TrEMBL record:
Gene3D superfamilies: 3.40.630.30
Record-linked InterPro entries: Acyl_CoA_acyltransferase, BioF2-like_GNAT_dom
Transmembrane segments: none
Domain named BioF2-like acetyltransferase: residues: 169-298
Protein name: BioF2-like acetyltransferase domain-containing protein
Amino acid sequence: MLVAREYSTVAHARDALAGRMDRASTPSLFDRIDWFESLHAHCFGKMPVRILHTMEGDNEAWLFLLSPTERRLSALANWYSFSWSPVFIGDPCAETRRRLVEVMAAHLIAASAHIDLYPVTDHADLLLDAFRRAGWFAVRRPMGGRHLLDLNGRDFAAYWADRPGRLRNQLQRKARASRFTIDIGQHINDALWRDYITVHASSWKQPEPGLTFLRSLAGREAAAGTLRLGFARLHGQPVATQLWSVENGTALIHKLAHDRAFDGASPGTLLSHAMFAHAIDTDGVQRIDYGTGDNAYKAEWMDRREVLHRLDFFNPRFASAWLPAARTAISALVG
C-alpha cells in the first residue's frame, strides 16, 4: 500500500533524500533540494513548509509546499522560479506518476481546504487528474507566460539573422557608437556583487526583495562552474548587468538590469547580444530560457512562448472553500 510521508522542514527532507535530489542526479535547477532550501530560507522567512513524499519501488514523487495559514497551502515558489512541479525520482511512467501524486493529494485532503500551485507548465494535466481523483475540486487558469529559445543546431550568426529587423538595426546603431566594455565571468566575489547591486539600484526595477537569495544562487552556481555574470561598463563603472546560469545544454536568464541614466545608449541590449553569443557559440547551449514574465522585449530575443498555469484545488469537505471555489471557477470561465 502506498503511503505519503510528510516533512515539516527542508532540512528533514534533505536528510531523507540522502543526495537523490542533488545536482549530480537532478538535471533541472528548479527541482533540486538546494533550490528549495535556499528559496525557503531567504524568501519565506519563518513560513512553515509541508513536504510530501511517496515511493513505489525505485520511483518517488515529492511535493514542496508552503503553509501560509493553517488550512491553506501553496507551491514553494516565487518570481525566481521559472516553473514548479512535482519532483520525480527514478523513471516512473505516466500512470505511476499519477498514482504517486494521487496518494499525496489524498493525504492532504484530510486537513487542507485550499491549495494553489504556480507557475506550472509540465505535469499540469497530471496534477489536475490526480487531485480530482483524490476528491479535490480543481481549477486551471492561464496566468502569464515563459519565453524560450530552442536553437535546433543554429550557431549565433544563424540565430541573429532570424531576429526581427528592428532589433538587429538597433544593435548595429548602438554598437557603432558604443563606449562600453563587456565582460562575462564565471565567478562571484564581494566587489562584483557590489557592482550588481549598484546597477540594480539605478535600474527601472523595484528594490530587490531577494538579494541574499540571488547572492547564494550566484555562489552555488559559481562553485559548480555554471554561473555567467555579465557587465557592461563605462570607464570601469558598471551600467548594465545580467545573471545567467548555463548547464546541461540550457541557459537560464535569472536577472538583468541596467542604469536608466544610460537608456539612450542601450547598454542592456549590447550586453544581451554578448551574453547570447557567449551562451550559444562558447557554451554550446541548445536552449535559452528567459523565465516568467511577458515583457515585450523578450519576444524579440526568443522564438516561442509557453503558457504558465495556476492550479487551484478546493476541498469540498470544508464549507469555507465553497465560495472561493465558485469564484475561481467563474474567473477561469471568463478569462
